[in-house]
Design goal:
Blueprint (H helix, E strand, L loop, with lengths): L4 E7 L3 H9 L1 H7 L13 E5 L8 E10 L3 E7 L7 E11 L2 E9 L13 H21 L2
Antiparallel strand pairs: 1-6, 2-3, 3-4, 4-5, 5-6
Helix pairs in contact: 1-2
């Protein structure tokens, strides 16, 4: 069984504005994570920690696919805890004057051995807040 998460959210903002929010590291740190080494290139690698002082989990990613204004696909892993990798895919589709954002995070079953901090429910709650609240409010302001 695969523990894929799919979050779909309509945003009242054009595709290019949503794409910029997803791929410009200066904009990303306003609504998502501060990822200083993020560069939008295939096979580019990036690292970040969750916000706050705790710096509990080092996140690592490698960009697997970039189709501007349409798709961003990258790995998502925790190298200090596991060699396993999961995949996050962002897809943008024009929907009238707005954008339909679909986020899929797959392979979470690969992290089950890491314990309660890596439960599917935690990821689902996090992605729903990130996509449905944080990103949506960021791109719809102004």
């Amino acid at each position: 069984m695969h523990d894929n998460i799919v979050v779909k959210q309509k945003m009242e903002a054009p595709v290019d504005k949503v794409w910029a929010a997803l791929t410009d590291k200066e904009q990303m740190k306003e609504w998502y994570f501060d990822i200083p080494d993020f560069e939008l290139t295939e096979h580019g690698e990036f690292n970040f920690f969750e916000p706050g002082e705790g710096k509990k989990f080092h996140h690592h990613g490698e960009i697997l696919e970039v189709i501007p204004n349409e798709k961003l696909k990258h790995t998502w892993s925790y190298p200090e805890f596991s060699k396993e990798k999961t995949i996050v895919k962002w897809r943008l589709e024009q929907d009238g004057d707005g954008t339909l954002v679909t986020l899929m995070h797959k392979g979470l079953e690969n992290l089950n051995h890491l314990g309660s901090d890596f439960r599917r429910e935690s990821f689902e709650e996090g992605w729903n807040e990130i996509v449905g609240t944080d990103l949506k409010e960021f791109v719809e302001k102004k």
